[in-house]
Amino acid sequence: MRSRRAAWTWLLEKEMRELVASRAWWVLLVVMGPLVGFAFIGSVRTYAEASGLGGTSAGVGEAFSPLVGIWAPTFSACELAAVFLLPFVGIRLIAGDRQSGALKLEIQQPLPPVVRIGVKALVLLAGWIIASVPAAVAIALWRSYGGSLYGPEIATVAAGHVMNAGLTIALAAAAASLTEHPSTAAIVTLSVTVGTWILSFVAAVHGGVWERLAQYTPTAMVAEFQHGLVRLDVVIAAATLIALGLGVAAVWIRLGVPVVRRVAESIALAAMAFVVVSAGTAATKSRDFSESRANSFPLPDEQTLAAVRGPISIEVHLAPEDPRRVDFDRHVLAKLRRVRPDVHVRYVSATSIGLFEQTSAGYGEIWYDVGGKKTVGRSVTAEAALETLYSLAGVTPRPADDEAVFRGHPLVTRAPGATLVFYVLWPAMIVSAGVWARG
Fold this sequence. Notes:
Elements: H1 7-21, H2 23-50, H3 66-84, H4 86-100, H5 102-107, H6 113-131, H7 133-144, H8 151-178, H9 182-206, H10 209-214, H11 218-226, E1 229-231, H12 232-252, H13 259-280, E2 286-288, H14 299-307, E3 312-316, H15 323-339, E4 344-347, E5 366-370, E6 373-377, H16 382-393, H17 418-438
Parallel strand pairs: 3-4
Antiparallel strand pairs: 1-2, 3-5, 5-6
């Protein structure tokens, strides 16, 4: 008799059992505790020292935000695990079916390939969320110490790492479906990951189009979320790349389809993804969820800049690797682009490091043009840049409200109990659960 159950439910149960039986997943669970614990304990110690522990200057901690001081380094452990451990779990779950012959039995069921891959990806994502529990434990410990919690920024950081896990799962699924053996899939996945790191390095040296492309590497996208910033173009790019990876996996999981047809379909999917990502780069919407508004100018300045008439052009005579250019990009241009997406920036330099350009005439100058009025400056601070723009535009910003200024949340603590929780209790609990589940 034909079963009344939905066709995908048996596959969901089967993939869940496969996940529980996977040694790679249990290794991921065990390692996540010490990995997150090491990052959390180290960041708490540094945060405490900046807040006055051990005789440091009192009040320095007021400049600290838990987002940058605690959550960014703590959740970076999740990023490390997603890069080096999660791919093996995904490859084991997908490529293992081909090795054991289970994939041939799955294909006989009336399930579209997209649904089949989607179920596997859903189980892998659930496995990753379970593995991320130590990060939630770190949040609870921080709260128990009396630390400040700001929900929107924590949710943004967590969402960024879930997105990163989705990218890793999609890449692992595509590699496992394209290759014949799990070890080959692992090499392909690692090669792509290293390739994104090389792209980031080239972008730092040469800038230009490379710098634009590097903004959509997983590392760069996660960094945006870790600072509490959500950009629409980044979300579009991430969602498209995840869909592309799962789509390619769905195409190549059909073993009975001719290879030429699968290659053509994969190329078509890649072309569609390229068009969507290219169109998405024009999206300028963004949202700063950080409590300190670290990614934004003060609200009065944003309102004044938005009201400035005429185009704004900036010409920067600094080399790509010059630290002054890095500071200017991060603290001025990135914030300015969020308010005025129409700002035009042009970089001028003869070399990539600028070491021998220091004596050149004009090197280090920053030219501002607002509505045809020009002036030049050399300071790379946000205050100097805003003052210059206001002078050219002939406007005066509204004074900032002292009550709205972020004062920080200093906290002196030695992270009591964290070592016991992450290094002893968590591994013991996971090992016990693994022995029971696999027994």
